[in-house]
């Protein structure tokens, strides 16, 4: 299946015998896949659309810094944890109705988010929304394999990769437009509520257009493993998000230690299930392949770098520099354009360069983010503007487009063909967990350096100095002085993640089959 740096496995048929599902013509297959991609677009748009609304949400419902991080991380964590069990349920009961159920939960939770009256309620609603997204998303990949012949899957998954990258990159722009058009109080609620009409239409189309194809597998769900994994990751995320806000008391370190213990227990439980012949949530045999282990870490680290930059830029531009949500969203337009260009050419480059497309992608992301960091380090806060970040974010966006579409294909190619489905599920989960951890770590660093607790005293001191004509001018200067160094430090961490990602790409095979998803 691949030209690996290790010895070649015995030759085998690259794809099993495939026949089209009953009544599914190529035209209907693409129509059904388009409906599935509507759901994918909505769920991934919601990973970044909220970023530009965070300062507005903070003021509207009196949310603290930890709440802002939970709004992003809680969604990503729930999304990631739902992926593997949802895929198993789809194999057993049919992916159509699992997709329908998850999309219904996601749409209802979007309404709940839009109506939330307090921080805790919004966090819970976001977790439920992420759970719904994680339930329906595996069906997109599953139908990509069920609806299309192997030689057509490359095109299908190329389109899917473009949708993933573009939806994530467009989130801040769409969010900024909604807040600008509808105002702060109504606009942030419509960032969630906009999913409702789209979701209702998608549900109707899903019921009528998507065929009822059943994989026919009787897969176990491994609830104990899921609970151990969820508890372990939550125990790690809670102190990472809450620790800075609460001054790192003893319980935060105990929680971190407890999270490690739970994750070790999860690994032993999965190994025990595998020895008994029971299908575990994460098959340990996958990690017998060093290349897969490296690829898994790559997925974790890259998504930690990629998702967190929108969080940092949104808070810097609005809370630190006093720009509007739309102006904050417009900053990311070069990234979105670059992402579209990169995603559109990634499949062709992967055929020519093999693993080189991932190396090029991560290198461009690292260079682009390093350039953003350099701008923040050297340019005074009063002189910062969109134009200074245009070229760096365009470069980073192109690199992201090169990476997003083909990365899972190269990672999954490191395992045996019979494990490709399980490997795909693990990679999807790790990507979302990486997003959650990235936001948790970067937000902790950002707010630690910003030291917002001293802002009030600093504004008062600035006014007493006589250097400012009004309290607003003093406040703007002080906030910039707090947020610019904080954002610079946080972006340095994202650059480090991107550089590590570049190094980890070398663990992957040089070339893989480019016909599409794993068989």
What does the model show?
The structure is a single chain. It contains 19 helices and 2 strands. It is an all-alpha fold and 519 residues long. It has 2 domains: 25-217, Growth Hormone, Chain: A; 282-519, MFS general substrate transporter like domains (Growth Hormone, Chain: A). Strands 1-2 form a two-stranded antiparallel ribbon. Helix 3 packs antiparallel against helix 4 and helix 6 runs antiparallel to helix 13 (333-353). The N and C termini lie close together (10 Å). The model is unreliable at 1-15 and 514-519 (pLDDT under 50).
In short:
The chain crosses the membrane at residues 30-54, 66-85, 97-117, 123-148, 155-178, 190-211, 223-242, 248-269, 297-319, 325-345, 357-376, 388-412, 433-450, 483-506. By secondary structure, the protein is mainly alpha-helical. The chain has 19 helices and two strands.
């Amino acid at each position: 299946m691949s030209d690996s740096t290790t010895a070649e496995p015995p030759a085998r048929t690259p794809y099993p015998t495939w026949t089209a599902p009953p009544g599914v013509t190529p035209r209907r297959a693409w129509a059904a896949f388009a409906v599935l991609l509507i759901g994918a677009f909505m769920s991934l748009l919601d990973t970044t659309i909220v970023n530009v609304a965070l300062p507005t949400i903070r003021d509207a419902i009196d949310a603290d810094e930890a709440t802002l991080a939970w709004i992003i991380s809680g969604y990503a964590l729930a999304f990631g944890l739902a992926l593997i069990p949802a895929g198993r349920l789809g194999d057993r009961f049919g992916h159509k109705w699992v997709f329908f159920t998850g999309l219904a939960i996601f749409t209802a939770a979007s309404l709940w988010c839009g109506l939330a009256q307090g921080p805790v309620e919004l966090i819970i609603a976001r977790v439920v929304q992420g759970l719904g997204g994680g339930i329906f998303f595996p069906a997109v990949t599953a139908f990509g394999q069920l609806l299309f012949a192997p030689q057509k899957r490359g095109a299908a998954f190329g389109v899917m990769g473009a949708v993933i990258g573009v939806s994530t990159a467009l989130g801040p722009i769409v969010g900024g437009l909604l807040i600008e058009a509808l105002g702060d109080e109504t606009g942030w609620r419509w960032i969630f509520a906009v999913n409702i009409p789209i979701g209702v239409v998608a549900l109707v189309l899903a019921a009528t257009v998507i065929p009822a194809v059943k994989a026919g597998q009787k897969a176990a769900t491994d609830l104990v493993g899921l609970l151990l994994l969820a508890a372990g990751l939550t125990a790690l995320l809670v102190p990472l998000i809450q620790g800075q806000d609460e001054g790192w008391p003893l319980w935060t370190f105990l929680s971190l230690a407890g999270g490690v213990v739970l994750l070790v227990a999860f690994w032993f439980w999965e190994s025990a299930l595998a020895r008994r012949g029971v299908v575990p949530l994460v098959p340990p045999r996958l990690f017998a392949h060093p290349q897969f282990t490296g690829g898994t870490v790559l997925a974790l680290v890259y998504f930690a770098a990629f998702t967190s930059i929108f969080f940092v830029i949104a808070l810097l531009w609005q809370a630190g520099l006093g720009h509007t949500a739309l102006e904050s969203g417009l900053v990311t337009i070069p990234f979105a354009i670059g992402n579209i260009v990169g995603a559109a050419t990634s499949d062709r480059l992967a055929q020519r360069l093999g693993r080189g497309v991932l190396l090029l992608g991560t290198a461009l992301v690292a260079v682009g983010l390093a350039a953003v960091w350099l701008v923040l380090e050297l340019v005074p806060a009063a002189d910062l503007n969109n134009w200074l970040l245009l070229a760096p974010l365009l470069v980073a966006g192109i690199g992201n487009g090169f990476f997003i579409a083909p990365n899972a294909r190269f990672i999954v190619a490191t395992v045996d063909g019979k494990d490709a489905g399980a490997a795909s599920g693990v990679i999807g989960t790790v990507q979302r967990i990486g997003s959650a951890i990235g936001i948790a770590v970067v937000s902790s660093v950002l707010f630690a350096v910003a030291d917002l607790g001293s802002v009030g005293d600093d504004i008062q001191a600035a006014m007493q100095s006589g250097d400012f004509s009004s309290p607003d001018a003093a406040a703007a200067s002080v906030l910039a002085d707090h947020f610019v160094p904080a954002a610079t430090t946080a972006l340095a961490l994202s650059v480090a993640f991107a550089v590590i990602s570049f190094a980890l790409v070398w663990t992957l095979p040089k070339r893989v089959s480019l016909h599409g998803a794993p068989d």
